[in-house]
Amino acid sequence: MADWPRHVSRIVNRMIRISTVFLAAVFATAAATPSKPTKTTETAPVARSAFDKATFEAYVRHLFVWPEQIKVDISDPEPAPLPGYSAVKVRGSMGDRSQEETFYISKDGQNIIRGAVYNVNQNPFKPELDKLNTGLQPSEGTPGAPVVLVEFSDFECPYCRQEAKILEDNLLKSYPTQVRLYFLDFPLDSLHPWAHAAARVGRCIFHQSQAGFWAWHDWIFEHQQEVTAENLRAKALEFAKTLQGVDVAQLTKCIDAQESEPDVQRTIAEGNALNVNQTPTIFVNGRRIPGVLDWNVLKSVIDYEIGYQKTAKNAGEDCGCNLGLPATAGAASNSSLTAPAK
User: Fold this and answer.
1) Rounded distance, CA 119 to CA 81, Å?
2) What angle do the packed helices 232-240 and 210-222 form, to 10 degrees?
3) In this structure, what are the phi and psi dihedrals at residue 305, rounded to the nearest 5 degrees?
4) CA distances to 68, 175, 315, 319 from 303, in Å
5) Of 317, 323, 320, whose CA–CA distance to 341 is shortest?
6) The Cα angle at residue 188 between residues 184 and 191, in degrees rounded to 5
7) What is the predicted pLDDT for the residue at 183?
8) 26/130: higher pLDDT
9) What is the C-alpha separation between 324 and 334, in angstroms, rounded?
């Protein structure tokens, strides 16, 4: 029994040697066998589509840095002038301020093009010309003129007052026969408390006399700082007593019954359709010019259009459009500032 520990020790050492040889063989076999790649399950990212309005809104907000305070409206897809694309309009608005952009989205919803598409055979401002309707609007200048200015204005807007003075001092003196000017109301109600009512007054006067309207136009801008929402009616009726061809009793009825409100709403809707977002905004043969513009700059645009329309004849009132006679004495022309399709 004295040799038992020694005997056990020999058995244990032998087992260790056998185990070591076995493990070495296992490792050698593993090294000689080509390893198979470990299979892992990877989830491919889900492709987003610009036709999903929530996805597209988030994309546009990031593009323009539009915070939550700006309301974003996205239209349904419409046919686009680009093959394989759909047109989507995006409008961001806050109060009376707005911005509209047109995007073209590929049929798979993956690619987006921002900008305008032009047809070399058409006036580049044809989309604007198609939306500008000057029928029965206050105007001055020559019917059939090669250059038409359409002004969207607000009687309470100080910048509109500046623009009105620039046009009054220069436009018809420089272009007695080559320009026609139309005035369209676009009151910014959230900024100017009496502008909408003043627009209705102007339209009530216009119903009786176009000359009376332009007299009102000049007077209200000249006295802009004296007028308030409370005294507008009284001042308007007092001023109307100086106008020839205007029946004050009829004018009073028109003002109190707000009979001219549909006229104002019509020009506001037209401005919205054209994405007018500030006053003044002038369209020169369809070319958008926002804000007050120095006369020399505006004159250069008019001069260019006069020369261009001598051969193009795709804008202005001598573009081949049907010109109508005034509906009533002193009323605006029924002509429409619309370029013919080419």
Assistant:
1) 9
2) 130
3) -65, -35
4) 44, 10, 14, 17
5) 320
6) 155
7) 98
8) 130
9) 5
Spatial CA neighbour of 112 closest among 122, 124, 103: 103
What percentage of the chain exceeds 90 in pLDDT? 70
Give residue 43's pLDDT band: very low, low, confident or very high (50, 70, 90).
low
Chain centre distance of CA 63: 16
Sign of CA dihedral 122, 128, 133, 137: negative
CA 30/CA 337 separation, integer angstroms:
86
Q: How far is CA 93 from CA 113, 135, 332, in A?
A: 21, 29, 33
Amino acid in position 167: L
Q: What is the pLDDT of residue 42?
A: 60
Rg (CA), the chain: 37
pLDDT, tens only, 189-213: 989 999 999 999 999 999 999 999 9
Length of the chain: 342
Stretch among 44-53, 129-138, 152-161, 193-202 having the lowest mean pLDDT? 44-53
The rounded distance, in Å, linking the Cα atoms of 96 and 188 is 6
**What are the tens digits of pLDDT across the range 80-101?**
988 999 999 999 988 767 788 8
Picking from 205, 199, 182, 202, the residue whose alpha carbon sits closest to that of residue 136 is: 182
pLDDT tens digits, 198-251:
999 999 999 999 999 999 999 999 999 999 999 999 999 999 999 999 999 999
d(CA 315, CA 3): 122
341 or 182, greater pLDDT: 182
